[in-house]
TrEMBL record:
Protein's name according to its UniProt entry: HipA domain-containing protein
Coiled coil: none
Taxonomic source organism: Microbacterium memoriense
Region annotated Disordered, chain positions: 420-457
Record keywords: Kinase, Transferase
Family: Belongs to the HipA Ser/Thr kinase family.
Keyword Kinase: yes
């Protein structure tokens, strides 16, 4: 049976995704659709690949089959199939699209459905996800959203100081991501990284550690929402680079910097988007965020053209040995952050067609900003974690600037691992260790009164 999903962008009907009887998925633009394409992989002239439409939708949903099955059960979808899930929950997703069942149109903003969030519901969601990362979607609350990725998370909308569950009529404004209890301090580490980024000239959204009763979680403002006009947020269109390239989420680690530069070049008249991407790439490399794959970079697509989205999902994963420490995007021949020196950055520049001196200037600028604030950036982490990150970042900056050889360390001390956390003893010297190769209703006002946040200091 042929199935159809309606796609709306900026309040205008953009077109339809059609799932044919033979399993093929296509997207057809409406004659009056906005000039902005819904994806670089789905151009207006219909020249996208056969798999682009299907992969675009796959990237909107969670990665794990178990999570999708639970999502289907919670939302009453007839199956965990992509079309069935988006039929039930395509109203609040990443970016500016609203995806609805065939024949349906979005509800006007002045008729938004407001479902208040209780503090105990928020604490319960956080606790549930920490116990079971696949439990993104609660059946007992009136939420309707879809968030991609492997890590458990949920979305909320903040309106005039009060919190609500998001849905097709009410765009979420924040994403709440409970940290894995086995990854000690990861919530604070991500907040600290996103606070450091703007100090190094890399824009990033506002993030904090949220407290709800006895639970904590990482919370970040959505960069794909505009809250400057009226009470109800406006959706801004964005897509991650996996969607731009027309690949599925399982291929997110198989993308090179050259592929990114090539797809960005199709919408980057003056090179500004590529320069912004290279600044983010540099920052991720220098803080040891080896897990920065294609879904961790996004483009904003609008009537005024394209631009790079702010930095997100930036974590110094050297703190956590269960993460693969090899760079998701290599810097020329450098496989690890501590190996990427000036020669690697210059070779990368030649590969992607960027002036070598300009590439080195970008690296020097970001590295200098990081170095200036590195001593104070990680003070909210546990003492031993802060020491480890500061030392590793110092080392990476030194290598990038050609101050030291990759084999040298930034500090002395041996590192041991206890409960997944690195512990440093400063009595002896050591070289960097190796890591496991694994990728991996009460009054509404009560919520704002009881959910507190902690800044990064």
């Amino acid at each position: 049976m042929t199935r159809v999903l309606e796609v709306w962008l900026e309040g205008t009907h953009a077109g339809q995704f059609v799932h044919a009887n033979d399993g093929a998925v296509t997207f057809t633009y409406d004659q009056d659709a906005p000039d902005t394409p819904i994806s670089l992989s789905l151009p207006r002239d219909g020249s996208g690949t056969r798999a682009s439409a299907s992969n675009f939708l796959e990237n909107i949903l969670p990665d794990h089959d178990t999570t999708r099955a639970r999502m289907a059960a919670a939302y009453g979808a007839s199956s965990p199939d992509t079309f069935d899930l988006l039929h039930a929950a395509g109203g609040d997703i990443a970016g500016g699209l609203v995806i609805l069942p065939e024949g349906e149109a979005p509800t006007p903003a002045d008729r938004a459905e407001l479902n208040p969030v209780l503090v105990e519901e928020t604490a319960g969601r956080i606790s549930s996800i920490k116990r079971d990362p696949d439990s993104f979607y609660p059946s007992e609350v009136p939420a309707r959203f879809s968030l991609a990725g492997t890590q458990g998370k949920f979305a909320l909308a903040e309106i005039d100081g009060y919190w609500y569950w998001s849905n097709a009529t009410l765009p979420s404004t924040h994403i709440i991501k409970p940290g894995n209890p086995k990854l000690h301090g990861i919530e604070r580490a991500e907040v600290a990284a996103l606070a450091l980024a703007p100090l190094a000239g890399v824009p990033a959204p506002v993030a904090t550690v949220l407290n709800a009763e006895d639970q904590t979680a990482f919370m970040v403002e959505r960069f794909d929402r505009d809250r400057s006009h009226g009470d109800i947020p406006r959706r801004l269109h964005a897509e991650d680079l996996a969607q731009s390239l027309g690949i599925g989420p399982k291929s997110k680690y198989n993308v090179s910097v050259k592929q990114v530069a090539d797809i960005i070049g199709t919408v980057d008249d003056d090179g500004s988007i590529l320069r912004s991407f290279l600044r983010q790439l540099t920052f991720n490399t220098l803080i040891g965020n080896a897990d920065a794959h294609a879904k961790n970079y996004s483009l904003m697509l609008g009537s005024r053209g394209a631009r790079l989205a702010p930095l997100y999902d930036a974590v110094p994963v050297m703190l956590y040995p269960t993460y693969d420490q090899k760079l998701a995007m290599r810097i020329a021949g450098a496989r690890h952050p501590q190996a990427a020196g000036p020669d690697h950055w210059r070779k990368l520049a030649r590969t992607i067609g960027v002036d070598e001196d300009e590439m080195q200037s970008i690296v020097t600028s970001v590295a200098s900003g990081i170095r200036e604030h590195n001593e104070s950036a990680w003070t909210t982490l546990a003492v031993d974690q802060g020491v480890l990150v500061r030392n590793a970042v110092d080392r990476n900056v030194d290598v990038a600037l050609g101050v030291k050889k990759p084999s040298e360390t930034a500090r002395t001390g041996t590192i041991t691992v206890q409960d997944g956390v690195h512990r440093r003893k400063t009595t002896a010297s050591s070289t960097p260790g190796s890591f496991a190769p694994k990728r991996n209703s009460a009054p509404v006002g009560e919520l704002s009164a009881q959910i507190e946040t902690e800044s990064d200091g």
